[in-house]
Amino acid sequence: MSENKLHDSDARSDRRIARTQAAIRDAFIKLFFERGFDDMGVGDIAEAADVARSTFYQHFTSKEQVLCATMQPMLIHLAAAVDEAELPPNLPGVIAHFWSNRRLAQAVFTGSAKPAIIRMLADLIEPRLNTPSSAPARLIAMHLAAMQLGLIEEWLSGRYHCPPEALSDTLHRSTFASASALMMAAPTTAG
């Protein structure tokens, strides 16, 4: 097989993989709106995406992984608040998107899907924690992720409304300050 034909075959395969994954994510979102996270299974997602269950498992290990793949492009901007001294430029847009889609965002951030989102956000935060601390980086990452989602969850409830830009600034300042304080080496005591 010539190199060009091999390259064309790889490109077609890559496009097919991307289409299949997009169909699975789209089916997941549709079912999430219709049924909620708890009332759908992998079989439901595969059927709605018009793929075999085995095809689903070639791309994702669980419905939690589909949720994370769907949310990751937005949550990377929350993770950036950990170590960027200036407000991450895309954070206000992400926060505004959450408000515009608050029905889905509330379901993600308050329901049984929340622990998977916290773990995934912690996965994005942890590599950004590079200064010594007396506590494990994973513990700090989990704390920061839960703190960020807790703030967003309260804001989405509408009880304490402010413009998305104000929440973005608050989220950034609190995350950056907390991460900075938590990642300082613990003071030693003479004794």
Please supply descriptive tags for the structure shown above.
9 helices, 191 residues, 0% strand, globular, mainly alpha, Tetracycline Repressor, domain 2, Arc Repressor Mutant, subunit A
Describe this protein's structure.
The chain has helices at residues 3-35, 42-49, 53-59, 63-80, 91-100, 102-110, 114-125, 137-156, 164-182. Helix 7 (114-125) crosses helix 8 and helix 8 (137-156) packs antiparallel against helix 9. The protein is mostly helical and 191 residues long. The protein folds into 2 domains: 1-60, Arc Repressor Mutant, subunit A (Orthogonal Bundle), CATH 1.10.10.60; 62-184, Tetracycline Repressor, domain 2, CATH 1.10.357.
Topology, pairings included?
Blueprint: H1 3-35, H2 42-49, H3 53-59, H4 63-80, H5 91-100, H6 102-110, H7 114-125, H8 137-156, H9 164-182
Helix pairs in contact: 1-2, 1-4, 4-7, 5-9, 6-8, 7-8, 8-9
How many domains make up the 3D coordinates? 2
- Give a count of the beta strands, DSSP E runs of length 2 or more: 0
The CATH topology of the largest domain comes to Tetracycline Repressor, domain 2
Given as residue ranges, the uncertain stretches (5+ residues, pLDDT < 50) are none
Sheet with most strands? none
How many helices? Answer: 9
Radius of gyration: 20 Å
- How far apart the termini lie comes to 73 Å
Beta-strand content estimate: under 5%
- What does the average pLDDT come to? 88
Which class do the helix and strand fractions yield? mainly alpha
- Estimate percent helicity: over 70%
